[in-house]
Amino acid sequence: MARYTGPITKKSRRLKTDLxxxxxxxxxxxxPPGQHGRGRVQxxxxxxxxxxxxxARFTYGVMEKQFVRYYKEAARRPGKTxxxxxxxxxxxxxxxxxxxxxxxxxxxxxQMVTHGHFEVNGKRVDVPSYRVEQYDIITVRKQSxxxxxxxxxRETFGERQAPAWMHVSPxxxxxxxxxxxxxxxxxxxxxxxxxxxxxxxx
Length: 202
What we know:
Strand order of the largest sheet: 2-1-3-5-4
Order of helices and strands: HHHHHHHEEEHEEH
Shape: globular
Number of helices: 9
Number of strands: 5
Structural class: alpha+beta
Mean pLDDT: 86
Distance between the termini: 27 Å
Low-confidence stretches: none
């Protein structure tokens, strides 16, 4: 299962956005890395579109090949391609765990899923890209309830409010998916139309 394992703060600085959330190193130096980082970069249309796509990729921890598959799926569905693409990305299990407040970062959420701490509708799932559906119920596995990542999730639960499209039980950390999110419910600084424009050229 391929994933980006390099320095994420460097990517944040290159793309001028905090991809981690609360990254103190990015806040200290919010300019591109390298000796020419403070220089002016000529903003061209292609560069702007490419940066927006890279923002989405690194925010959700998705490799290029998988991201293209998501885009093609979104393009086949009726509706606005960019908004459907974001809904697909938000419905990944690792993103749902992050949005529910059970992990401080998406990387941590991905690791918790990979280690098999969760069940979806009573079945163990350890694939971060697993897509949840409306009315799915996500629970912490009985064997994982006393393990450190889950204990930490209990201690930090409530630091970030869960979105309206899901309900999270504070006692059991059970997640109920009311519906898949709409664009208005996705709190992320992305201009998805630029991604659509980039891929539509090919």
